[in-house]
Design a protein that fits this description.
It is built from three helices and two strands. With 115 residues, the protein is mostly helical.
């Protein structure tokens, strides 16, 4: 049996990627939170077609890999679902916010250079 170790590798991402990704997540949050429905409890009501329209809109003027837009949408949906859980338990104090400027980079989207 072969053991494989995983390491956190520092990657210098372009500053404009980080800022634009943050803006995409903000726009996605506004759009997705508009699909939260409140009755006795809150729930997310977003269809596949709504997600496709959001993706197409966010990809306009996007110059990086499409993976980042997909990642932003999935990240925001997870954030909203977590907020809904807290809201339904009575523990959410305010609407969800994106506070950290982080970008998840797939290992297939960057390469190593021997220096």
């Amino acid at each position: 049996m072969e053991a494989v170790k995983s390491y956190r590798i520092p990657v210098e991402a372009p500053k404009d990627l980080i800022e634009e990704y943050f803006q995409v997540k903000q726009r996605a949050l506004e759009h997705i939170f508009a699909h939260v429905r409140f009755s006795n409890k809150a729930h997310l009501s977003i269809s596949r077609e709504d997600r496709r329209k959001l993706r197409d809109e966010l990809l306009k003027n996007w110059r990086f890999s499409k993976h980042y837009v997909d990642s932003a949408i999935n990240s925001v949906i997870g954030l909203v679902k977590s907020w809904i859980t807290l809201h339904n338990m009575g523990r959410a104090e305010s609407k969800p916010k994106i506070t950290k400027r982080t970008v998840y980079i797939k290992s297939t989207l960057f390469s190593f250079r021997n220096v």
